[in-house]
């Protein structure tokens, strides 16, 4: 074989390697059904929420997008917290008692999310990971 033939073989081989590498970098990620299911499950991942009342600090696990009311109801069913209130059609649920805090004598029970007074009722607030919910009488 001549030097010219070696050069042609070498350049052809190098071109094949470069093309193979470039093609492999542009391939779309194809997921198996198992991976797609796992990714969808991560979209509804658990989140952690802290509830603070007068005498209790409670760390609960919830689901992304779950309302504060739904989480409190589940915690109540599991004997983790006590609360009561009233459902108002069109407005949602109004908490009147939680833990040792009770509305009355001119004071209302308000809740704060991450240090800021809530702007929606408990049945409308969608929980986020790391939320700190503090209840106060004012």
Automatic annotation (TrEMBL):
Domain Transcobalamin-like C-terminal: 65-138
Record-linked Pfam families: DUF4430 (PF14478)
Protein name: Transcobalamin-like C-terminal domain-containing protein
Organism of this sequence: Candidatus Nomurabacteria bacterium RIFCSPHIGHO2_02_FULL_42_19
């Amino acid at each position: 074989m001549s030097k010219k033939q070696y050069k042609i073989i070498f350049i052809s081989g190098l071109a094949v390697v470069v093309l193979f590498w470039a093609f492999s970098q542009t391939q779309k990620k194809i997921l198996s059904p198992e991976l797609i299911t796992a990714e969808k499950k991560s979209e509804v991942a658990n989140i952690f929420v802290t509830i603070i009342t007068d005498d209790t600090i409670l760390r609960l696990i919830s689901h992304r997008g779950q309302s504060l009311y739904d989480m409190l109801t589940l915690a109540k069913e599991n004997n983790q917290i006590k609360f009561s209130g009233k459902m108002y059609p069109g407005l949602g649920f109004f908490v009147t008692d939680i833990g040792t805090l009770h509305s009355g004598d001119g004071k209302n029970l308000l809740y704060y999310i991450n240090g800021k007074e809530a702007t929606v009722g408990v049945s409308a607030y969608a929980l986020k990971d790391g939320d700190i919910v503090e209840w106060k009488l004012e």
